């Protein structure tokens, strides 16, 4: 809601910017050719890809705009059009220990298209000879094949089906010219997102029995790049928006915020680095023919630090990541886990890995991001398997013994999942006499509830419970008791946590 004071301010739009050219130097998006089509009008792409396109335009390197298509958020499309694609982006965080803020009005978006109401307009984008790039962020569940989608749907429900129709329209518009294909850069957080998107598009084309020449053109003329994106975009700052509007001197209903850090890893043809001048514009973008080392670095250092530490930290009395960074015990535990046990298992040069880890610790310390440990705890069993277990196994292969901190992280998980009652889909745990909700797959919660229900408190009982968790190859992909030293170590840590408390147990493994 606009306050009475803010209501006297002008609204951010093309008319306002024409009278204040100093606020957004360079041409605005609606005056530049549309070179990029974006699926999704959410805060992430606006604080990541569109921010980078604006940066390239400011340096005269891209000279193109982004047309945004969305069927999920028509209200966001309407706001984009009301503001002529312009909005403010505020990045805040720590760099080299100092608090940094960067604020600018971004003008890289030309317009928004409501896919439900303007589907014909969407398909007309395929006829634009300037259009070259497609980006998307349709959530992890967005890149899925739906056999129910029909070629006649306007629009079909799934993102791959919408894209398939656009590609077929492009083929027809340019008579199969192989030089008119797209570079497709999905930003969804799934492994090998480009490969997965291409697979679902081809499945859709086969289901629709598209002309084989169209299918061949889709395969040969278009680049489906695999990408890895990394930036926390915190979106509309509701709690401080009135002050920010007053400070800025205008009302911006699309005001966006993020952390300072950003990284985009793009796996594709070598020529793509020259074609898309992101690095020349100064952005932290890596073009590579193999993104796996970078994905491993991000998942096992950043996400692995969260999963190894969050549950222990919560049971030790902390509630948010920022608090953990101010707690010498928790911070020390996390640092030793990452530097001593994760980094030695990764393939990139040690100095690169340690530099990335240093940025992770600064990001976790960002005072503008309040990340709740209970939010991080969601689905911790599958997260431990994906984010931590590969480091455990590689460490054992190198050193011949289980890593102390990463193994302790699993013991913390087991004790965090201590509860016997499931209410409203969550297992109920207790910290200092107060309830907390443990959220995971229903079967996982039921198994933990049963194990703790029958736990007798003895040393033998601890090992029995621990073994029951470790042997579940349906959770871990293997029986973790087969890893040398894992079962006895986890059992010992669980017993220590139960008898001595989390902080004392952390002190013992952090020395």
How would you explain this protein's 3D organization?
Strand 14 (422-423) and strand 15 form a beta hairpin. The protein has helices spanning 14-19, 43-46, 49-58, 74-82, 119-124, 159-173, 193-207, 212-221, 241-248, 272-275, 292-315, 321-326, 328-342, 350-364, 373-376, 380-399, 404-416, 442-453, 459-470, 473-476, 486-500, 502-510; strands at residues 34-39, 65-70, 87-95, 98-106, 109-114, 133-136, 183-186, 223-224, 226-230, 233-235, 256-258, 263-267, 285-288, 422-423, 426-431, 434-438. Strands 5-2-1-6-7-8 form a 6-stranded parallel β-sheet. The protein has a 4-stranded mixed β-sheet with strand order 4-3-11-10. A 3-stranded mixed β-sheet has the order 9-12-13. The protein is globular, with a radius of gyration of 25 Å. It has 511 residues and is α/β, with parallel strands linked by helices. The chain is 46% helix and 15% strand. The chain is built from 22 helices and 16 strands.
């Amino acid at each position: 809601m606009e306050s009475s004071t803010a209501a006297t301010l002008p609204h951010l739009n093309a008319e306002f910017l024409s009278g204040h050219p100093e606020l957004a130097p360079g041409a605005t998006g609606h005056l530049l050719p549309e070179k990029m089509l974006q699926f999704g009008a959410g805060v992430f792409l606006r604080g990541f890809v569109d921010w980078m396109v604006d940066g390239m335009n400011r340096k005269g390197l891209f000279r193109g705009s982004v047309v945004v298509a969305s069927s999920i958020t028509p209200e966001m499309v309407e706001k984009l059009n009301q503001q002529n694609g312009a909005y403010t982006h505020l990045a805040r965080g720590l760099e080299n220990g100092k608090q940094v803020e960067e604020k600018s009005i971004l003008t890289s978006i030309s317009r928004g298209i409501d896919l439900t109401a303007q589907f014909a307009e969407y398909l007309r984008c395929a006829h634009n000879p300037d259009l070259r790039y497609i980006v998307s962020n349709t959530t992890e569940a967005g890149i899925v094949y739906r056999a129910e989608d029909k070629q006649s749907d306007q629009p079909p429900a799934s993102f791959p089906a919408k894209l398939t129709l656009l590609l077929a329209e492009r083929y027809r518009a340019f008579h199969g010219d192989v030089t008119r294909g797209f570079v497709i850069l999905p930003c969804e957080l799934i492994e090998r997102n480009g490969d997965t998107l291409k697979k679902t598009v081809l499945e859709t084309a086969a289901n629709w029995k598209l002309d084989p020449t169209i299918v061949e053109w889709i395969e040969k003329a278009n680049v489906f790049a695999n990408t890895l994106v990394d930036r926390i975009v915190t979106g509309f700052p509701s709690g401080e928006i009135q002050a920010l509007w007053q400070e800025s001197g205008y009302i911006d209903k699309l005001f966006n915020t993020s952390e300072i850090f950003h990284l985009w890893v793009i796996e594709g043809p070598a020529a793509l680095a020259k074609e898309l001048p992101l690095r020349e514009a100064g952005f932290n973008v890596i073009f590579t023919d193999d993104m796996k080392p970078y994905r491993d670095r991000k998942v096992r250092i950043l996400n692995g630090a969260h999963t190894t530490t969050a549950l222990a930290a919560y049971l030790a009395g902390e509630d948010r990541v920022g608090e953990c960074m101010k707690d010498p015990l928790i911070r020390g535990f996390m640092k030793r886990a990452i530097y001593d046990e994760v980094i030695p298992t990764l393939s990139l040069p040690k100095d690169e890995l340690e530099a990335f880890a240093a940025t992770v610790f600064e990001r976790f310390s960002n005072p503008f991001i309040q990340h709740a440990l209970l939010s991080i705890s969601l689905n911790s069993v599958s997260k431990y398997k994906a984010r931590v277990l590969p480091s455990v196994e590689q460490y054992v292969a190198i050193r011949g013994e289980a890593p102390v901190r990463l193994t302790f992280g699993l013991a913390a998980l087991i004790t965090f999942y201590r509860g016997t009652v499931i209410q409203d889909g969550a297992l109920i745990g207790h910290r200092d006499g107060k309830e907390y909700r443990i959220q995971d797959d229903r079967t996982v919660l039921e198994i933990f509830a049963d194990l703790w229900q029958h736990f007798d408190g003895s040393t033998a009982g601890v090992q029995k419970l621990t073994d029951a968790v470790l042997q579940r190859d349906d959770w871990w992909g293997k029986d973790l008791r087969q890893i040398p030293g894992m079962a006895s170590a986890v059992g010992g840590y669980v017993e220590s946590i139960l008898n001595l408390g989390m902080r004392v147990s952390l002190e013992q493994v952090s020395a």
